[in-house]
């Protein structure tokens, strides 16, 4: 077998390339669609202080800011506001070491139309002030007005009553035409002008530790970050995830592992040997018929495995989208009959043996290729069909490509797989300049980054 890592700085950096759940570098693509909806200007932000909390631990430990409890906004992305020089003479309010003058952290969920006015002019007094009388009795008339914050972003400030869901039109090639978001402001508050109260809004799930913070000085709250989170609304059943396949025809349990991505009716996968006695790696592309719950796909092996087979497969899907069974009309050469969904944590353990397993000739396109952007490609061909797995040089993104070859023109449908966050898909048209060079001449839809592929081995 040939190494997949022979030439050009070794196309894969290690023999076993781990494809793990990582934060994709494409978040800016979706963020570009949002400022116009929130009526924000780039000058309002300080990107060097952005923070991605989306991949943080679900059960995060309590931290402290301003000597008060601080609960991080796990699952959200913070776009930092430009506030460093906004308050002359006060250099300590935004500290992180609980020193003198440091203000604690809390959250304020809001509607999309309120974000811009708040950033420009600050938060207004609450119209519904549940604790007003109690605080005025304790603090006096100076506390008659209050701004409300929440100690928790999740199951707190993100309640629909405060942080109303809004939709954003997404660019071509995204998994859907629109995406739903919530927005919460991450704030600091003056430790000398607040009172703390029990959580009152209990019509939605709330954290048992959540408290309401009432700040009774109108200049006592300083937003310093816009938190965004993508939310699912009435999501239809979806095949995206990790699946295990049994081969009942050959009495093999857990024969292969499959990594599936669905975009509307389009479905892509990458499959590889798990416990099967035969060595294989394949990719597929097909369409889902929701009416009769059938998935029709074209699949082809890659030179990452010994098998070199290609064919058509029809899978019948269970009503809960947790199982798929090989149906009538499928080619018999596919070694698998029953698929079942497994937890996505298997993504973290997935590895690809990067050695080429096929012997190829000079005119055979199958083999190891490298893109001008550093993406590595394992390509398999059969007659007029082409199949590939592409992995970028940072190992953060991977995609499947399946297409047809007509003369020197190659048309490929592609889709991202194995990403914990945003996934993209699209269609490209390529020109085969020689058996060792492919040029991408047209991105029909979707953001495809490689422009030229060169065969390595």
TrEMBL record:
For bias kind Basic and acidic residues, which ranges apply? 46-65
Source organism's superkingdom?
Answer: Eukaryota
Q: Where is this region: Disordered?
A: 45-66
Q: What is this protein called?
A: Uncharacterized protein
Query: What organism is the protein native to?
Result: Rotaria socialis
């Amino acid at each position: 077998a040939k190494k997949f890592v022979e030439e050009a700085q070794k196309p894969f950096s290690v023999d076993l390339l781990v494809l793990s759940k990582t934060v994709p570098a494409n978040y800016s693509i979706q963020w570009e669609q949002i400022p116009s909806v929130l009526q924000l200007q780039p000058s309002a932000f300080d990107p060097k202080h952005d923070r991605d909390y989306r991949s943080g631990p679900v059960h995060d430990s309590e931290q402290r800011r301003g000597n008060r409890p601080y609960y991080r906004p796990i699952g959200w992305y913070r776009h930092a506001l430009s506030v460093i020089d906004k308050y002359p003479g006060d250099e300590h309010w935004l500290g992180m070491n609980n020193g003198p003058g440091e203000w604690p952290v809390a959250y304020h969920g809001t509607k999309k139309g309120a974000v811009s006015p708040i950033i420009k002019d600050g938060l207004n007094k609450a119209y519904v002030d549940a604790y007003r009388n109690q605080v005025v009795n304790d603090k006096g008339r100076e506390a008659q007005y209050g701004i409300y914050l929440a100690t928790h972003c999740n199951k707190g400030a993100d309640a629909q009553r405060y942080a109303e869901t809004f939709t954003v039109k997404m660019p071509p090639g995204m998994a859907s035409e629109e995406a739903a978001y919530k927005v919460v402001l991450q704030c600091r508050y003056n430790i000398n002008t607040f009172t703390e109260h029990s959580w009152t809004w209990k019509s939605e799930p709330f954290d048992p530790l959540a408290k309401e913070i009432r700040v009774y000085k109108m200049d006592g709250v300083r937003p310093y970050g816009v938190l965004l989170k993508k939310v699912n609304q009435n999501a239809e059943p979806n095949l995206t995830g990790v699946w295990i396949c049994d081969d009942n025809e050959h009495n093999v349990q857990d024969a292969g592992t499959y990594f599936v991505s669905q975009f509307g009716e389009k479905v892509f996968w990458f499959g590889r040997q798990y416990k099967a006695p035969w060595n294989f790696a394949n990719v597929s592309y097909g369409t889902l018929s929701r009416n009769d719950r059938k998935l029709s796909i074209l699949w082809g092996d890659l030179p990452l495995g010994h098998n070199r087979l290609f064919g058509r497969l029809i899978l019948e899907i269970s009503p809960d989208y947790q199982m798929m069974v090989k149906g009538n009309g499928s080619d018999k050469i596919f070694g698998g009959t029953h698929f079942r969904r497994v937890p996505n944590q298997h993504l973290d353990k997935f590895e690809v043996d990067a050695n080429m397993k096929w012997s190829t000739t000079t005119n055979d396109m199958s083999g190891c290729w490298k893109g001008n952007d550093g993406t590595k490609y394992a390509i398999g061909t059969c007659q007029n069909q082409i199949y590939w797995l592409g992995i970028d040089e940072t190992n953060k993104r991977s995609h499947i490509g399946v297409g047809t070859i007509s003369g020197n023109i190659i048309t490929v449908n592609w889709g991202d797989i194995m990403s914990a966050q945003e996934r993209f898909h699209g269609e490209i048209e390529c020109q085969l300049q020689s058996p060792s060079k492919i040029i991408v001449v047209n991105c029909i839809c979707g953001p495809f980054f490689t422009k030229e592929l060169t065969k390595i081995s």
